[in-house]
Design brief:
This protein is α+β, with helices and mostly antiparallel strands. Strands 1-2-3 form a three-stranded antiparallel β-sheet. Helix content is 35%, strand content 12%. The protein contains three helices and three strands. It starts with 7 loop residues before the first helix and ends with a helix. The chain has one domain: Irregular (Factor Xa Inhibitor), CATH 4.10.410.
Length: 65
């Protein structure tokens, strides 16, 4: 069986934790941050996890995970 190629865009966006969850960057923190409150920006600093409904699709893009 040939080696599976990793989807490079998924590789940059997701990391697999030791417990097997997929970690991702919080949404809505790329630009236009001036109108967001200090509190909301502080909460966006934390990473979030991919939902279990989407995790199966994302794992298909990451053959090592």
């Amino acid at each position: 069986m040939p080696k599976l190629k990793t989807n490079r865009s998924a590789r940059k966006r997701f990391r697999v934790t030791k417990s097997g969850l997929l970690k991702k960057r919080s949404a809505k923190r790329g630009h236009i941050l001036g109108k967001k409150t200090r509190k909301s920006k502080r909460h966006l600093r934390k990473n979030s996890y991919v939902s279990s409904a989407d995790a199966k699709k994302m794992r298909r893009l990451l053959p090592y995970g």
